[in-house]
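Quick one:
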Amino acid sequence: MEPRRPVIALRALRTTIAGSLPKPAWLAPPKQLWAPWLLDGALLEEGRRDAVRLALADQESAGIDIVTDGEQTRRHFVTTFIECLEGVDFQHKRTVRIRNRYDADVPVVVGPVVRSRPVFVDDMRFLRAQTQKPVKFTLPGPMTMVDTLYDNHYRSREKLAREFAAILNREARELESAGANVIQFDEPAFNVYIDEVKAWGIEVLEAAAAGLKCPTAVHICYGYGIKANIDWKKTLGSQWRQYEQTFPLLANSKIGQVSLECANSKVPLDLLALLKGKDVLVGAIDVATEEIETPAQVAAVIRGAMKFVPPEKLYPCTNCGMVPLPRPVALGKLKALAAGAAIVRGELGG
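Output:
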C-alpha cells in the first residue's frame, strides 16, 4: 500500500528550495562540500535522521510550502548516490576538472554500473512519515553524474549517461511509490556542456524521468556559493545567456518544472519567457552570500519573474543548495523566501 501523499495546494507562488541545507555541526563540519561525517555506525544513522527532522522543522517554521530532506543523509549531492552503485572504484580516485571549473579527486568507473538495491528509498519513507507537507526529493542528473567521475570503462559520456538514466529511473519510480510529490534531477552541467545538452542531454534526462506520474523537475544553476563558482561567474560577462540555448529545448521536453538561478545574477529575466507552459522555480535567494535577503528583495525578484511567467506557474525558490552556508544564515534566508512570496501573494489577493 502506497503512503498517503499530500496534495500540492492550488495557490500561487508556492515556495520550495533547490535541495540542500547546512548540516548540524555535530553531524559534519560546517561550510564544506564533501564534509566527512563526525559520527559512525548506529550513531551516524540516528544523527542523520535527527538532522532530517531539524531540516524539516526549519522549513516548516519558516513557512516553506514544498519541503525537502535538506539532503541531510548525503555527503554530496552526486557522489553519495554513486557510492551505492557497483562498477565504481572509490579507493583509487583520479583528478578531473569538474564543470570545467575546479579540480577534484573523483571515483573511477571500472565496470558496468549497476544498482543492486535502492539508494534513497528508505530515506524517502522516513521523510514522508515526518511531515504532512508536500515533499520534493532530489537526485543527481545523468550528465552531472558523468561529469563527477573518471570513466575508465564506457569511455563515452553519452553511453555512461544512458546507463545512469536507467538506474535513476528505477530509483525515481520507487521514490514516487514511497510518497514523493515531486522528483527533481540536478543538472548544473547543463549550463556548461550545451552542445551535449542538445545532442543527447535532454533525451537522457527524459529517460531518467520516464513513467513518473508525479511532477518532474530539473535544476540548472551556476553552482554552489564556493570560490571556484564565484570566480567562474566573473568570466561570463555582463549577461549570462546560457539558459537561452537550453530553455527552448526544455520547453519542448517532457520535464514539467525548471529550477533556475535569478537572485543577484546576470541572467536576463526575459529568458524565462522561453519556458512557456512549464512551472518555473525561480531562484529568489542568493546562496553565494551570507547576507540574508529582506522579504522586499525577495518580492522584487518574484515580481520581475511574473512579467514573463504567470504566478500560478511560478515557485519562489533558492538559487541552489545552501549546504555551504552557516545554519542560522540558511534559516534566515528560508524565512525571507516565505515572507517575500507572502508579500506578492497578498498583492495578488491570494
